[in-house]
């Protein structure tokens, strides 16, 4: 039986740094803010973005990059929410842009933080009267992340495997330091990487992709850099990232055959081994 990580609910390598937090655009969603923690020294405040209406939604746990802020990914998160996915975005204690003490190697603790956040969200989902009661589908869960968050995602599907994860999205990430010991039931994975990434090189991303034993795909952004394709709608690659990740989630968590066809039509930059 999987060992569950205790979590406390407290109420409602160097990588390139990110910018200061910016106010996100308004999205047609409800945002539930939970003051979670995995022990006294690991606060994990989490934003849960819920699509409009009632009913259970597939869940994506999104992991920010090193020295980044959740708000910098507001547009990508909004794209997934509009498509009907609930998105939980924790702020990790020693890798976020406002951390009093930064520690890039705290990466090795973050896959277990993902499990702890999932434990808390699903407990609230089952608790009558809780803010998430009946809103999440515990059988349709994915994880994704950018840069250090992509590495965290690799770890959550590898050495620190959470068996509840049915899919993973790795944006400009690699298996550096977390290893590529993928294990457990197959979880389809989508990697997206810019050929012009000078921080985590595309070769590092491809090495992680090559190690995945399950259905997988790798989308190369020929002019893509490390940050902007995943954060800035003004970047020419952002729409491609938003649309391909959304179709991947639709296919994997909804069984949407039309989304699968759109992925297959992405062209020569898309190495498709999704099956």
Automatic annotation (TrEMBL):
<dbReference type="GO" id="GO:0052689">
    <property type="term" value="F:carboxylic ester hydrolase activity"/>
</dbReference>
<protein>
    <recommendedName>
        <fullName>Chlorophyllase-like protein</fullName>
    </recommendedName>
</protein>
<dbReference type="Pfam" id="PF07224">
    <property type="entry name" value="Chlorophyllase"/>
</dbReference>
<comment type="similarity">
    <text>Belongs to the AB hydrolase superfamily.</text>
</comment>
<dbReference type="InterPro" id="IPR017395">
    <property type="entry name" value="Chlorophyllase-like"/>
</dbReference>
<dbReference type="InterPro" id="IPR050261">
    <property type="entry name" value="FrsA_esterase"/>
</dbReference>
<dbReference type="InterPro" id="IPR029058">
    <property type="entry name" value="AB_hydrolase_fold"/>
</dbReference>
<keyword id="KW-0378">Hydrolase</keyword>
<feature type="signal peptide">
    <location>
        <begin position="1"/>
        <end position="26"/>
    </location>
</feature>
<keyword id="KW-0732">Signal</keyword>
């Amino acid at each position: 039986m999987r060992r569950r990580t205790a979590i406390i609910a407290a109420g409602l390598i160097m990588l390139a740094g990110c910018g200061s937090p910016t106010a996100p655009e308004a999205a047609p969603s409800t945002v539930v803010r939970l003051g979670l923690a995995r022990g006294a020294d690991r606060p994990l405040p989490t934003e849960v973005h819920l699509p409009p209406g009632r009913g259970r939604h597939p869940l994506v746990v999104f992991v920010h990059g090193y020295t980044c802020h959740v708000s910098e990914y507001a547009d990508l998160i909004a794209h997934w929410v509009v498509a009907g996915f609930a998105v939980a975005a924790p702020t990790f204690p020693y890798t976020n842009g406002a951390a009093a003490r930064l520690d890039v190697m705290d990466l090795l603790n973050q896959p277990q933080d993902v499990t702890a956040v999932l434990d808390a969200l699903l407990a609230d989902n089952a608790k009558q009267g809780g803010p998430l009661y009946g809103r999440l589908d515990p059988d349709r869960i994915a994880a994704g992340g950018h840069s250090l968050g992509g590495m965290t995602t690799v770890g959550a599907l590898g050495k620190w495997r959470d068996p509840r994860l049915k899919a993973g999205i790795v944006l400009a990430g690699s298996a550096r330091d977390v290893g590529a010991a993928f294990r457990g039931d197959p979880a389809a994975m989508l990697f997206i990487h810019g050929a012009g990434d000078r921080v985590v090189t595309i070769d590092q991303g491809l090495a992680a992709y090559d190690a995945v034993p399950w259905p997988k795909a790798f989308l190369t952004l020929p002019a893509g850099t490390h940050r902007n394709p995943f954060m800035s709608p003004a970047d020419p690659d952002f729409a491609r990232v938003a649309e391909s990740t959304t179709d991947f989630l639709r296919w994997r968590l909804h069984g949407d055959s039309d989304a699968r066809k759109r992925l297959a039509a992405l062209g020569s930059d898309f190495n498709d081994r999704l099956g």
